[in-house]
Amino acid sequence: MLGAVLAAVTLVVAGAGAAGAVAGGEADLSHHGQISLWDGRVGVWLVSENHGPSDVSQATVRIAFSAPMAGGQELPPACLWSSDRVVSCRTGALRAAGGVGELALDLRTAALPDEMTVEISTAWRDGVADRNARNDRHRVLVLATGDPYVF
Known about the structure:
Blueprint: H1 2-24, E1 29-38, E2 41-50, E3 60-65, E4 79-83, E5 86-90, E6 99-108, E7 115-124, E8 137-143, E9 149-150
Antiparallel strand pairs: 1-2, 1-9, 2-6, 3-5, 3-7, 4-5, 7-8
């Protein structure tokens, strides 16, 4: 009996998710850019694009650092601190096949790390499905050399 109830719940949830994806359309978001680390500073330059076929009215990109950032830093108006290691930023509207959002962050780390890992991913797409998530998720190892690490 419990197995039948769980199966029914799974079907309802799966069906709702699939219907929501169809109703919201489909887009292919991508994030590309570069990251540098030097003297306790980290620079992130990010471009978000929509390769279509549907427009995206708003999306959120999540940037997670393996090392904590120093407190009290101002972010661009479209961004907020989710924790001392995570920044979440709105991309703005991304039109199909050409919508571009740009972001630049210049942050101070809490210490002087020799390296850090930075993870970039789409956290929210306003109900639009993205069947090609490979190009909007990146994990970048950045050494404290000041060199740009491209993703």
